[in-house]
Design goal:
By secondary structure, the chain is mostly helical. It has 13 helices and 2 strands. It is 75% helix and 1% strand. Strands 1-2 form a two-stranded antiparallel ribbon.
Amino acid sequence: MSVPGKKSGSKRKSKSDFGVALVFLAPNLIGFLIFTMVPMIFSLVMSLYDWPLTGERAFVGAANFVKLFTEDVLFWKIMKNTLVYVAAYVAFNVLIAMGMAVWITSLKKANEFFRSAFFLPMMIGIVSSTMIFKWILSDGGLVNSVIRFFGGEAPNWFGSTATAMIAVVIVSVWQGFGYNMVIFISGLLGVSQSVQEAAKIDGANAVQTFFRVTLPCMSPSIFFAVVMTVISSFQVFDQTFVSTMGGPNNETNTLVLYLYNNAFKYQRLGYASAIAWVLFFCVLIVTAFLMKQQKRFVNYES
C-alpha cells in the first residue's frame, strides 16, 4: 500500500537536492558556457566566412574546409609534422616517465628529493624552458661543446631540417615528463604487494614480474597518462613559436602555430577557425580510438 505523503515528500526532496546541486554547479556551468561553448559556436560560424581581421566579412560556406583539404599543400605537411611530434613526444614522455618512476620507487632514501627535482620542470614556464634549451643547444652551448670535445660534428639543432623537430621534442619531454612520472609513481605504489610476492613464489624473476604483473596492474594509470599526453601534444605551440617560428622550411610548423599565423599574421580568421575545427576533430578521433582500446588493454581491479 503506497503512502501519498511519503511519495510527495520524496519528490520535494529530489527537487530540493537538484536545486542545491544546480547552485553549486552554476559558477562552472556559467564559465563553461561563456568561455567554452559560446567561443566554439562562434568559431564554427566564423569558419563559414571569409573573415578578415579588419574589413568586411563574406559568407563562403564550406569553401575554407575545401581549400584546406584540396588546395593547401602546406596544410598536409603541417599535419604530418604534428602527427610526428605527437608520436615522438608521447612515446618518449611515457617511457622516460615510467623509467624514472620505477627508479625512484626503488630508492630507499632521497626518493622524495628526486621526485621533486624531476617534477620541477613542470613548474617552469614552457617559454622559459625553451629559451634555456635554445642556449644549451646553440652552436656554442653545452651540448655542442661536449660533442666537439669528443671529436664529433655539432649539429645546428634548431636551424637544421634534420634536427629541428628532434630539438623541439627534447624541450617538450624535459618540461612535461614530470607529470606522468608522478602518475606512474602513484600507480606503482598502488600495486598490491601480495600479487607481486605470489608471482615471485611461482618462479617469476624481477623482469617477468614487472612486465607480467606490475604493468598490467598499472594499466589504468598508463592509459590515463597516454590519453592526456596525446591531447596536450596536439596543442603544441609555445615551443615551436619561441624556438623556430615553424622553421626551418616549415619542418616544425604545427597545426596550432599554423592556426595562429593564419589568424594574426595573414588576418584570415575564417580560415584559422576551419583549422581549429580540423584540430578539434583530430583530437576527438584519436581520443575516441584510444577509448575504444580501453577494454582491450586496461585491467581494472574489481
